Amino acid sequence: FIRKSKIVNFDMAALSLVTIAAASVLGEAATRTSLGDAQSARECRYPPLSSIITENHVRELEENNIVVINNVLSSSDLRFARDNVEALGAKMDTSLNDSDVRQDRVLSIRESDEHYHGDELVHCIKLLRGIPFLLSKFDYAASDSHVVPQQCQLARYKPDGSSAYVRHLDRCNQSIYEMGLLGWLRASDYRHRVVTAILYLNAPDWTGGGELRLFDCDSDDDDGEHSDIIPSGGKLILFDSSRVEHKVLVSHHEDRFALTCWFNGILTEEKA
């Protein structure tokens, strides 16, 4: 009887430890986010952006799920911003994605970073982060309640003929049943992305490859219908994170730089 009691007590202790460990893992997953200090669209208003993004651009984004705006930076701002990002090259890390998914190097940057980025690069960050305010101002219909992260992602693709990013969607649309509870909780930031904004910091007459390839959302064929966008410096691209599948082709001749910000929010269709 004593021996049986000891076994029962051991089993209960083991069960308690497993329960505590499981709760700890799930708790960590549920609170894992890069949006802890995110701001509202109104807090990120940036007046210089009003001369760049118009109501027509927002309507085009609604209709086509993507809009491309050229020459959003002056030639001097682009040149100095490019110098800024090249100086950050040594600080960039390999992407956390599997090496067979993407081969670029990335760096999370903020206006408030201790490292001085330069006025032109800070201007670029503010341009991106100011976009949700104008989406709200012009009553963007596809999503609302936008949340703006403090950080943008700077990505560099080396001109080695192999650095690329496979076809993907910026938003995670999988269900909890497909991902499992732990994976679903850890993907919280990705599950709520609604708009992607990319600003290219390359030469304005870029001919180095590295095109952004956009796919027809109704086709799974990588060789099927698509369109390619040349990553010319000063070009701004906005697209629906939940609908536009895309990939990055290999670059040649010189480093390809892109500054990206993802805005979280609520899809209008989710409210229906």
Short description:
With 272 residues, the chain is α+β, with helices and mostly antiparallel strands. It contains 9 helices and 13 strands.
Give the beta-strand count.
13
Alpha-carbon distance between the termini? Answer: 62 Å
Order of helices and strands, N to C?
Answer: HEHEHEEHHEEEHHHEEEEEEH
How helix-rich are the residues, as a percent range?
25-40%
> Beta-strand percentage?
15-25%
* Largest sheet features: 9 strands, antiparallel
The overall average pLDDT, rounded, is 86
Which structural class do you get from the secondary structure elements? alpha+beta
What's the shape? globular
- Work out the radius of gyration: 22 Å
Number of contiguous helices: 9
Extract low-pLDDT stretches. none
Structure report:
- There is one protein chain.
- The protein has 272 residues and is of the alpha+beta class.
- α3 packs across α4.
- The longest helix is centred in the first third of the chain and has 30 residues.
- The protein is globular, with a radius of gyration of 22 Å.
- It starts with a helix and ends with a helix.
- The mean pLDDT is 86.
